[in-house]
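Notes continue from the previous slide.

Worked example: a multi-chain complex. Inputs as given:
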Amino acid sequence: MSPTRHKTLTLKSKRFREERQDVWKEMEALLQRIEARSVRGLSDEELIKLPRLYRSTLSSLSVARSTSLDQSVVTYLESLSTRAYYVIYGSQQRLRDRVYSFFTRDWPLAVQSAWKDLAASSFIFALGMLIGFVLVTNNPDWFYSFMSADMASGRTPAASEDYLRSTIYGYDSDDGGLGLFAASLFSNNSGVAIFAFALGFAFALPTVVLLLYNGLSIGAFIAVFVSKGLGFEIGGWLSIHGTTELFAIALAGAGGCLIGRAVAFPGEMTRMESLRSKADQAAIILGGVVVMMLVAGLLEGFGRQLIDTDWVRYTVGGVMLTFWMLYFFLPRKAIEGKPS
Amino acid sequence: MSTAGALSADQVKGGRRHLVTPEGIDLQIELADVGSRIGAFAIDLIVMILILLMIIFGAGSISAYDGEVAVTILVLVAFLLRNFYFTLFEMGRRAATPGKMLMKIRVAARGKARLSATSVFARNALREIGFFLPIGFMFGIGQGGVDGWMSLLTSIWAGIFLMFPLFNRDRLRVGDLVAGTWVVKSPRPILAADLITNDTPEVEAAFAKFVFTPAQIDMYGIKELHVLEDVLRARDREVMSDVATRIRTKIGWVWEEGESNATFLRAYYTALRGRLESKMLMGVRRKDKFDRR
């Protein structure tokens, strides 16, 4: 064989690159614009071009892999194709549409199909309240085992009727609406809700315990007021925001139960697959719980302080409860091909 | 550097994973390493803190009129940041928070599914449980302080969540595991110029005097070619002269007066790449110099 001459003109990988690189640059420029703004910023012409450029980039990649030893070209094409893949096969849904579909469909449907878990967690929660109530009514000493002095802040069985009455009526200017709203966002209850959900992984047992315990303290709290003849009044005070807040806690518990059941009884699937299959639904429910906590915070901060009349408080609480029930459980059409 | 086909055990260990598009091309994505994820998270935390500081400054001027409004705004912003910062950014087109964008990584669905909004929400809900709640506990937010045992337990709890990515093959956070996502690299390399140039007659003439025999070219394989490419792109004089000397010795090339190392290396690179690529067309990928094909 004769010595090989310098072969730049015949190097196929170089010619290949020269012929195709305009397409790659075009794809890159288009991707940059899509990532910076949106697919909607493209003209019709560019939209038609997009899949064509994508396919031709992919084919360049596979040609480059099998014919070119120019590392920089192959790495470049790999990253370009991957970026294009995520754009083409990624979700095209706008944030606004996502939020819209969350409220109109995803969230209520997720709650609807978890109705068994919701019933279970509400039952456990209510059971806790009942036990707490009965125990404290029969023996006020129980109160101190369910409530820390901090949480009770003077509202103990030893308090006078007048003092208790003063805690549930009247707008206290030092600790007014906004402040209470702010406090409630970081209150115990949002923590309880998230934990009730998170601890579901351990076969839902911690969720059950948490719901029971939280129920106990609410029951005990109510019992103190009832023993002083303030039963009707405390009902109003609690229900104005409580219907939303306690509902939210029950929902979070339902999310926990859902996950716990999936892990405990995976059926045909592996535990992990089973968990995966329920995780999205549980996440949607929890997302909703965050929203409900915000609403409850507003009701607690403003509604409860500004409205002093019992029956109005009951009405607001009742309306909220009815609203949530209708919102979640009115029949809804699932979009075809998209199981909730 | 990858080739189409199966990934070697080393590549899998290094974080390469198959991702076959519906068109049948294996994109071979790369998982983000734990370091860049920690970096991204740190950046995000700093961004969130900066936003809060700005609000505090802004609220400071309001609080002269109404302290309650100022506090409420602050708490509300903190609440929104904590709950939606990660979620909203990761639902975006780049599927990355500012920290992740800076570290050039992004969230993607494992397997072929699309990255759904609910997955993003789920993975970040667990961030809440694994990070923000324990931190809150330790600083006793809303709890009126905690005792030693409680903070020990919380530390262990948070520790499990934090260490989780180190102990599984796909570097998944607990949130990733549950949500069916993972974090991958999304580099944006620019297309560097081809090392083989023959634009001007002078360049052509300079290269023309290098004529290698097939035996001289066949000394190396693909791995060495790529090292040579890196050397040529880095353009470090010392390294180039070192490499050039080695190659000359190995292939028995006699250095002539006035022969520059850079030109020699480029010429050899061109010849070697031409040779190896034409072999590839015949279905032979010569891995490295020990591969006698």
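Summary box: Chain A touches chain B through 81 residues (CB under 8 Å). Residues 271-306 of chain A form the longest helix (36 residues).
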